[in-house]
Amino acid sequence: MIELLITGFIGIRLLDIIDLLLVAALLYVLYNLLKGTVAINIFFGIVAIFLIWRIVKALEMDLLSEILGAFISVGFIALIVIFQPEIRKFLLALGTPGFIRKKRKKFLFWNLNFQNPIDIDQIILACQRMADSKEGALIVIAQRNELRQYIETGEIIDANISSQLIENIFYKNSPLHDGAMIIADNRIKAAGCILPVSSSPEIPKRMGLRHRAAIGITEQSDAIAIIISEQTGKIALSKEGEIFRSLQPAKLKTMLEEELT
Predict the structure, then answer these.
(1) DSSP readout, 26-78?
(2) pLDDT at residue 108, rounded to an integer
(3) Can you give the residue ranges of every domain in the chain?
(4) Cβ contact 171:145 at 8 Å
(5) What is the Cα–Cα distance from 216 to 147, expressed in whole angstroms?
(6) Which of 204, 241, 207 is nearest to 224 (CA)?
(7) Which pLDDT does position 109 carry in this prediction?
(8) Which helix (H) or strand (E) holds 156?
(9) In what helix (H) or strand (E) does residue 236 lie, and over which residues does it extend?
(10) Which residues have CB under 8 Å from 175's CB, separation 6+?
């Protein structure tokens, strides 16, 4: 067994090492481009299927290998359609002067990015005050999915979380009042953002666009959405496509702490 390992190790060529490094660099660049979007989940799924296919092929499981191979070859055209914006962005970035130089440092010194803890107390305080004054609001808290494609639809703020700032943004006469606020990495990234509206038939018709948008964004990502009803002043929370209504501030804080810590 040891002899086989030594023989295999000696058989590795310099070109094989270069090949592995280039593939690793390509995957790293693709990950950075897709990070923070819904497409990152599809990317991980494709990588998983490809690895399974290679393992099955190495084990000479012919039938399963043929099925997975056909799926990968046929699905290539579909992937071009799905990832069209990301592929365009990758090609534009690759043709940008200095792109390789900028990415090389990040690749050599791999940094693990840990999200900063969300300042829940400031959010709860703002929600309580807005509920008391019946000011409608939709606050989305991003997690692993950074929601960059939705942040770009609103006004970029990139400010520290503050209850006063949240209240000012959702004040009835504010131009950003009707859109959604997105919080990520313990910062208010943007306000007035446009979110996908859920078309689920299970949603009661009496729910407005804020509630449907909150459910829609949590259906398509791992985000958490907080809704303040403008008509009733009641607080609701949506996660994983479900909505929890008529929450007291203490209950909202408990749910946020369970999800975010």
Answers:
(1) HHHHHHHHHTTSTHHHHHHHHHHHHHHHHHHHHTT-HHHHHHHHHHHHHHHHH
(2) 42
(3) 2-108, 120-260
(4) no
(5) 13
(6) 241
(7) 41
(8) strand 155-160
(9) strand 235-239
(10) 192
Buried b / exposed e along 112-151 (16+ C-beta atoms within 10 A): eeeeeebbbebbbbbbbbbbeeebbbbbbbbbebbbbebb
* Inter-CA distances, 213 with 85, 203, 253, Å: 23, 11, 21
Walk along the chain (261 residues) in steps of 10 and give the mean pLDDT of each run. 48 77 78 64 74 84 80 67 61 51 44 65 95 94 87 93 94 88 94 90 84 91 92 93 92 92 73
The tokens for 5 are 């390992």
Predicted confidence at residue 238, as pLDDT, reads 94
Q: With respect to CATH, is domain 120-260 assigned 3.40.1700.10?
A: yes
The predicted pLDDT at position 160 comes to 94
Per-residue model confidence (pLDDT) at position 82: 63
**The total number of residues written for the chain in this structure:** 261
Q: How many helices (H) and strands (E) does the chain have?
A: 11, 7
DSSP β-bridge partners for residue 188: 159, 183
Closest CA to 177 of 155, 208, 161: 155
Output the pLDDT for position 105: 43
Query: What's the pLDDT score for residue 178?
Result: 86
Nearest to 119 by CA among 99, 146, 139, 101: 139
**Contact at 8 Å (CB) between 175 and 144?**
no
pLDDT of residue 239: 92
